[in-house]
Design brief:
The chain contains nine helices and four strands, in the order ααββααβαβαααα. By secondary structure, the protein is mainly alpha-helical. Strands 1-2 form a two-stranded antiparallel sheet. It has a two-stranded parallel ribbon with strand order 3-4. The chain is globular and about 45 Å long.
């Protein structure tokens, strides 16, 4: 109950305070590239329920469906404004709407697309017992995931065989240790990493 109350208050206040930022980012995206301001993608949430995740669009409209993964800073699909938004995780801000709506939490396992969720083992499916979040242990370790993927000859295979299992182990670690204090620590560590 405390976690949900915190999520509602944090996301509501965040949305009010960040209205000017949302407007500025929207204008920049509109002038930088053709297409809408937001990118909507179906993700799998708590109890395996699908929901629509909101992000600021950071890729060209004609390329957002080419691949589910982005590889390195030089991925040609990423727009100029998108590179900046991704660097400081500003593209994730619209997920405050997801949190307010109850689809997500501030802290929790990052939600995946069903393609990858369908690969989970029975043990890994335990991450679907909680609301997904903006950040958790796995998000901290893989805050520069696209750069990590760029070091592999086959990024898609590396994601499925190496990175995704490691992320899920960290997700399960979070679920085992979750508490309000743990959430606060993760939030502060995430902010420190973003602005490092």
């Amino acid at each position: 109950m405390l976690k949900r109350t915190f999520d509602i208050l944090f996301s509501f206040i965040g949305l009010i305070v960040l209205i000017p930022v949302f407007i500025i980012i929207s204008i920049v995206i509109i002038f930088d590239t053709k297409g809408g301001v937001f990118y909507l993608q179906k993700r799998v949430g708590k109890n395996r329920r699908d929901f629509i995740l909101f992000k600021f669009r950071t890729m060209r409209v004609d390329s957002v469906s080419d691949s589910l993964l982005t590889i390195g800073e030089d991925d040609s699909r990423i727009t100029h404004s998108g590179a900046f938004l991704r660097r400081y995780k500003l593209d994730e801000l619209p997920q405050l709407f997801n949190i307010l709506n109850g689809d997500m939490s501030i802290v929790g396992p990052r939600p995946e697309v069903r393609k990858y969720v369908d690969m989970y083992s029975e043990r890994q499916k335990q991450v679907l017992a909680v609301r997904p979040g903006l950040t958790d242990y796995a998000s901290l370790k893989y805050i520069n995931e696209s750069e990590v993927l760029s070091k592999y000859d086959n990024p898609g295979k590396a994601y499925v065989e190496v990175i995704m299992p490691e992320k899920l182990n960290l997700n399960l670690k979070y679920i085992k240790e979750k508490s309000f204090v743990t959430d606060l620590r993760i939030i502060f560590k995430t902010l420190a990493k973003i602005f490092d």
